[in-house]
Amino acid sequence: MSESSGTKKLQELGNLKLHLLRSARELSIQQIEVMQSDDVATLLTVLSRKSEILDTLKTLQKELDPYRNQEPEDRIWDSAEEQASCRKIFEEIDRLLEELSQMDNQALDQMTHQRDAMASQIAQFATAEAVQNAYASSFLLSDEDTQSAVSMGFSLEG
Length: 158
Hints:
Elements: H1 3-37, H2 40-68, H3 80-139, H4 143-151
Helix pairs in contact: 1-2, 1-3
């Protein structure tokens, strides 16, 4: 492979990575919106699609590995425009990676908040149920208790 074809391959891989990251960003936006609507089925679909993209990105990263140890200035380009175009692609990739990281942190914070709110509600329901059960049991007598009271001559009615 000539060095020029190597830079063309780098640019192709960069374009593919950029496309995948844009798709991941769109799914991250959907993820955050769906999380706000509490639509678990749709959320799982979005997360599944996002996972597929991330798996493809991992494979793509392996194809980009040989270029990591190269200095950009040492690569042979067909033109300065091609080099500038490739640089812009990878600058956009870096920007998208930062944006995705922020969006994932936002989604994580939102899920943590929702989890904590749900745990609080469950605790409140459990406490309310325990109080209700205790209250009910203090006023209700079993059939056996009623029979004992009647046999001792007590009337259970006011």
